[in-house]
Amino acid sequence: MGSSARLYLAIARGSFRRYSTYRAATLAGVFTNTVFGFILAYTFLALWRARPGLGGYDTSQAVTYIWVSQSLLITVAVWGGGFQDDVQERFRTGDIAVDLYRPVDFLGWWLAADLGRAGFQLLARGLAPITAGAIAFHARMPHSPLTWPVFLLSVLLAVLVSFGLRYLVSLSGFWLHDSDGVRAVMLVVAMFFSGMLLPLGLFPDGLRQAAQVLPWAALIQVPTDIFLERSTGSALLAGLGFQLAWAVVLLALGRAAQLLATRKVVVQGG
Amino acid sequence: MALIELEDVARTFTIRAKVGRLRRERREVRAVDGLSFTVEAGECVGYIGPNGAGKSTTIKMLTGILVPSAGRLRVAGVDPARERTRLARRIGVVFGQRTTLWWDLPLRDSYDLARRIYRIPDARYRANLDRCVELLELGPLLDTPVRQLSLGQRMRGDLAAALLHDPQVLYLDEPTIGLDVVSKVRVREFLREINTVAGTTVLLTTHDLTDIEQLCGRVMVIDHGRMVYDGGLDGLHATGRSERTLVVDLAGPSAPIEVPGARVVKVDGARQWLAFPAEDSAAPIVAAVAAGYPLLDLSVREPAIEDVIARMYAKVPIG
Ligand SMILES: Nc1ncnc2c1ncn2[C@@H]1O[C@H](COP(=O)(O)OP(=O)(O)OP(=O)(O)O)[C@@H](O)[C@H]1O
Ligand SMILES: [Mg+2]
């Protein structure tokens, strides 16, 4: 294994361990996700009883949609957070300057940390809601065993897209002094366009098509449809390709923004 | 070849300040203004100056996280801003008010990470870590999360983190800030050890002159971004036009004493304080006082280094 790979692995492992120390927060989070899962699942049940087959989802798929999205919510950080909080804190204290003289790529560092976080949260925050859904609502589990690894791949891509978006928001701190405002806007946009509240297929014409090509669809909508085995064959590949394309674009943008930000600090003095 | 070389280095910042309600004004601040000096390998140099003198700015340029606006700067033969990453493997940096440690994880994890970052060979890593742990008494702290460390403990932790990769130069920006006397002593002992035994070149800024007196053979004083003194600690007195003080106790209260070569700076009842140039002899002044006044007792006070430097800061014209 290369020495860079070992470094990033160490960062990811440390980050995983760090999140595992926040036991109380994790328990509270699991509880909240599960309660919200129940509330939303009952809402969806009522809705689908009134309008069966809405958006092409049968009732069991609709309920499962809720439980899968509740399981993914924190892992793909729809609401922001994770490394963003750290970067923001480092901006506030000025520690961000010392990060620059370490011979480590800034993006690589935070990406590794975020993957470690996502890994922990997938296990700690993801398993309970989906299990609750399976037991209490007979949530629809994948029929094909192959769906599981593909789903996990899709979750990984979702985390990359989410990281790309959050990285850009964080770097805006180099210019805006404080990325809180941008972050608040992004939170609302992400909640709406990720499909977390409502599957994007239920959006009215126009808005639906837009939502389906925006990067946020990669966070919840695409992996959930894969879990529900709604996307199979070429649709499945299209979904993964869509995620991959956004991940590549956003990470490239992040890298470019990082170059500009570094230059700004080095030349203008922050 | 000198390890650190600065030739006429300058750094200006543009500040946009609000004037009135709408107008914004651009103002230039010359943080560093034509600085030239060299530091040889193995030296321990104290870098002092009043607040805003340009010390931190200089250190940032030396690490490569800030480019100079003008002048030439070399550290270990390379241009820091151009080859920041390459240079980072050869220098260590500690900012007293910043930390590179992993906040929520045990100290040990940050060291393990440093080992990956700097690709430190296993044997060397273990030897260096053992040495730092011993000298800085970090043993009981290794498994404590950094956020639970006191300021002094964290500072020791940061010092070790900056030295695991055997840097040639160590820059310290106020390493003893906020530390109690005991922690300061321990940090100084450690720095002396790595400078004299390991031969690491040390450049440190501080507002605590005891740091300098105990560690540095050489001191550089800057003010308004310009060098006002560069040399040994003793030479400061001559340059700083420092004064000694003659304290005399007379038989009773009297008008301020008038003798050639000294002036009264303070009167308190029967006791008077007379200042005279440090390089002058006290004997003729004492003789003159004894001849003209009812002298009971006297003592001579050497100038405090703080006063010398305070006078030096005050002397530099503003602008
Ligand atoms: N990023 C920046 N933007 C604008 N001005 C700056 C910046 N950094 C430093 N300055 C200005 O440059 C001057 C020198 O600052 P510097 O931090 O180098 O001083 P210092 O000697 O380290 O002071 P202190 O003892 O207070 O730490 C100050 O007037 C400061 O306001
Ligand atoms: Mg400073």
Give a verbal description of the structure.
The complex is a heterodimer of chains A (270) and B (319). Helix content of chain A is 74%, strand content 0%. With 270 residues, chain A is mainly alpha-helical. Chain A has one domain. In chain A, helix 6 (106-137) crosses helix 7 and helix 7 (147-171) runs parallel beside helix 12 (233-268). Chain A is globular. Chain B is α/β, with parallel strands linked by helices and 319 residues long. Helices cover 32% and strands 30% of the residues of chain B. Chain B has ten helices and 13 strands. In chain B, the strands form three sheets. In chain B, strands 5-6-7-3-8-9 form a six-stranded mixed beta sheet, with helices on both faces. A four-stranded antiparallel beta sheet of chain B has the order 11-12-10-13, with helices on one face. Chain B has a three-stranded antiparallel beta sheet with strand order 2-1-4. In chain B, a hairpin with a 2-residue loop joins strand 11 and strand 12 (271-277). The two termini of chain B are 34 Å apart. The interface between A and B is medium-sized, with 25 and 33 residues. The structure holds adenosine-5'-triphosphate and magnesium ion. Adenosine-5'-triphosphate binds next to strand 1, strand 2 and helix 1 of chain B.
Comma- or semicolon-separated keywords:
heterodimer; A: mainly alpha; 12 helices; B: alpha/beta; Rossmann fold; 2 domains; six-stranded mixed sheet; four-stranded antiparallel sheet; 13 strands; binds adenosine-5'-triphosphate; binds magnesium ion
Please write out the topology.
The complex is a heterodimer of chains A (270) and B (319).
Chain A: H1 3-20, H2 23-50, H3 59-72, H4 83-93, H5 96-100, H6 106-137, H7 147-171, H8 173-176, H9 180-193, H10 207-213, H11 221-227, H12 233-268
Helix pairs in contact in A: 1-6, 2-3, 2-6, 3-6, 6-7, 7-11, 7-12
Chain B: E1 4-18, E2 24-39, E3 44-48, H1 55-63, E4 70-75, H2 84-88, E5 91-95, H3 107-117, H4 122-136, H5 151-163, E6 169-173, H6 181-196, E7 201-205, H7 209-215, E8 218-223, E9 226-231, H8 235-239, E10 243-250, E11 263-268, E12 271-277, H9 283-292, E13 295-301, H10 305-315
Parallel strand pairs in B: 3-7, 3-8, 5-6, 6-7
Antiparallel strand pairs in B: 1-2, 1-4, 8-9, 10-12, 10-13, 11-12
Helix pairs in contact in B: 4-5
The structure holds adenosine-5'-triphosphate (ATP) and magnesium ion.
